[in-house]
Structure formats: C-alpha cells, structure tokens
Amino acid sequence: MKKTFRLRDLDCANCAAKMENAINKLDGVQSATVSFMTQRLTLEADDARFDEVLKEAVRVCRKVEPDCTVLV
C-alpha cells in the first residue's frame, strides 16, 4: 500500500533527509520519501502492517523534528 501524507512545520531539508533515511530503515517499509519542498511524506509499506508502520514513521518524524506533525 502506498499513501501520501501532508507534513506541518517541517523546517529544513536536512531534517527531511534524516526522516527519510530513518523511515526507510523501519521494518516493513518498502519505500519512503520526505519532501521538504512539498511538505509531504510518501510511504509504501506492507498492506497488513501499514498502520503499525505509519505509527513508527510518525514517531521517527517527531524524534527528528519535534515541531513537525504528520497529518493522517
């Protein structure tokens, strides 16, 4: 399953790259892209575990950029 989510208050491209790298390392993630320019997260993960993977991705985003919110 592949879905795109808006990001609120993503402040820099460096943080977006850190988020993208960390999310791609999560178990169950097939691919993830974080775009600073469009303020979007595109996540492709296993259908059966998508919600669980999404929660982990949100946690990673908060860890890298505490002010950033993933609009689910």
TrEMBL record:
InterPro entries: HMA_dom, HMA_dom_sf. Residues 1-69 form the HMA domain. One of its GO terms (molecular function) is metal ion binding. CDD domains: HMA. Pfam families: HMA. Coiled coil: none annotated. This is Heavy-metal-associated domain-containing protein. It comes from Anaerotruncus massiliensis.
